[in-house]
Amino acid sequence: MTEDSRPLAAALTAFADEHPLPYAPAQQMFRTLLPDALMKATSRQADRTYFVATGDIPAMWLRDATFQVLPYVQLIKDVPDLKPILEGVLRRELAFVQLDPYANAFNQTANAAHWRDDDETNISVSPQVWERKFEIDTLCAPLPLALRLHTETGDAALFDATFWETFAVILDIFEQEQHHEQSPYFFRRRDTAANDTLPNNGYGTPVAYTGLIWDGFRPSDNRCEYGYHIPANLFAP
Question: SMART domains annotated for this entry (predicted)?
């Protein structure tokens, strides 16, 4: 925890104290985790965005990042210092989507760290991409965060040119993957479990057009067996 983050941590602890849970051990856990879960996972970047580390892997999954910070949105009126952090998470997600809309996890810096260095895909993997498994929920992730932030704060400045440019990228990819047979994307990983790579030389199980969006991998990062993942399609705009 940095010196600058201590006031926010204190404000979140005070919020927990002002909203006690009826079971004392649960309240103690709430009091500890409310600041810790945010402060330990997020780190401010030079461009004032916020990187959200996911679990014990030093990478950011956009889906996980959104749901890690989403509960804090409802606290903005009580703890106003949350607003720039949560907006910074959204900005970082938008930047990552623009960097590579087919990637599912990203590095904090362009350090060329990858889950597997020998993955094969249709483009050179960016040094800031941790893994390039296409997952619909990755592209969906910034949208509920933006919507909830706007609903809570009324701040329409979120929907600037960068937001709409990124939204256009998301829609373009979804429209492309409604016709996956015409998509250039593939993903191959050698010497691995079957659910960690795509069959059919990396293009996935053959599919016919249905109007649904093709999905390479489920939110578990395991491959989709049949190409059209219904829960992910329901999540899509």
Answer: DUF1237
Tokens at residue 46, please?
């030079």
HSE on the CB side for 95, CA within 13 Å?
19
Residue pair 146/159 in contact (Cβ under 8 Å)? The answer is yes
Per residue in 177-226, pLDDT (tens digit) is 999 999 999 999 999 999 999 999 999 999 999 999 999 999 999 999 99
What are the distances in angstroms from CA 176 to CA 105, 112, 173, 212, 220? 21, 28, 5, 11, 23
**Average pLDDT value for residue range 102-117:** 97
Residue type, 201: N
Tell me which residue of 34, 40, 73, 72 sits closest to 55, measured CA to CA. Answer: 40
In a domain, 28, yes or no: no
Do the strands 105-106 and 42-44 form a parallel or antiparallel pair, or are they unpaired? unpaired
Position 24 in a domain: no
Domain holding 81, by residue range, is 41-235
Amino acid at 224: C
- Asked if 35 contacts 12 with a C-beta cutoff of 8 angstroms, the reply is yes
Total count of domains within the chain: 1
Helices vs strands, H then E, count in the chain:
8, 6
Kindly report the backbone phi and psi dihedral angles of residue 129, in degrees, each rounded to the nearest multiple of 5, phi listed first: -100, 125
Domain presence at residue 16? no
Encoded tokens for 84? 């720039």
Tell me the helix, strand and coil percentages in the chain, rounded to 5. 50, 10, 45
Q: DSSP secondary structure string, 38-64?
A: HHTTEEE-TTS-EEE-BTTBSSB-HHH
DSSP code for 157: G
Indicate which CATH number applies to the domain containing 120. Answer: 1.50.10.10
